[in-house]
Amino acid sequence: MKTQKLVFIALMAAIVSVLAQIAIPLPFTPVPFTLQVFGVVLAGLLLSPADAFLSMLVYILLGAVGIPVFAQFEAGLAVLTGPKGGFLISFPLAAYIISATSYKRTGWLFPGLGCLAGLAIIYTIGTLQLSTVTGMGMVKALYAGTIPFIPFDIAKAALAIIVARPVKKALLSLSS
């Protein structure tokens, strides 16, 4: 693997780690509002599918081994197996799907659809684990971990699409 690819993978994992710390705890849910989704979407829009997947896998592994990269400087397997864990473990697959639907494509349609598919993956896996771990049931888990976040996550995805265009152009000029 080229050094440049490794740097981009590590950079996206680092960006998500930083964005995770911009967190607002919410009183009605164990899931805080963060900017992580922006980073996951950005990874999917900037990197190849495999590299996007790897960048988020690196992020998850860093947190799993105890480096406090998750929201509110949390870390460890307990976070990944807890109420928020499903959202986190969905990140590699979501980034992969976003990238697979938008990588090397122009226009807004494919990135937009890819982002919606990625968000659906995050919400599905996250809500399932939230419901299972807390015992609150699927409907309550939807209201606690998904529905309040949808408008903000769509806004984050739209912003990521806007930001990704010039960044991707700059990265492509670096690699030529």
UniProtKB/TrEMBL annotation:
A GO cellular component annotation here is:
plasma membrane
Domain of life (superkingdom): Bacteria
Location relative to the cell: Cell membrane
Native source species = Calorimonas adulescens
Q: Where are the transmembrane segments?
A: 54-73, 85-103, 110-130, 142-164
Which controlled-vocabulary keywords does the entry list?
A: Cell membrane, Membrane, Transmembrane, Transmembrane helix, Transport
UniProt cross-references to Pfam families, sorted A to Z: BioY (PF02632)
The family classification in the record reads: Belongs to the BioY family.
Q: What is this protein called?
A: Biotin transporter
Instruction: Please name the taxonomic classification of the source.
Output: Bacteria, Bacillati, Bacillota, Clostridia, Thermoanaerobacterales
Return the InterPro entries for the record: BioY
- What GO molecular function annotation could you give as one example from this UniProt entry? biotin transmembrane transporter activity
